[in-house]
Amino acid sequence: MLRAARHVFRQFPIAAIVFSILLLSGCYYAPYYANRAEGGGTDAAVGEQRDFPYSQNDSFLLTQDVLRGEGILFEVKPEDKLVTLWKDADVPVGMLGSIVGKHPQYRYEIEVVPLSPRTARVVVNVRVEDVPDEDISKYNATARLNLFAKMDQLAAQFPPSEGTPKEGGVNYALLPNEDLKGLAQRATGNAENWRQIAQDNGLKSVTDGTGLPSIWVRNTLLSGTKKDSAGDN
Question: What is the pLDDT of residue 26?
Answer without folding.
Answer: 39
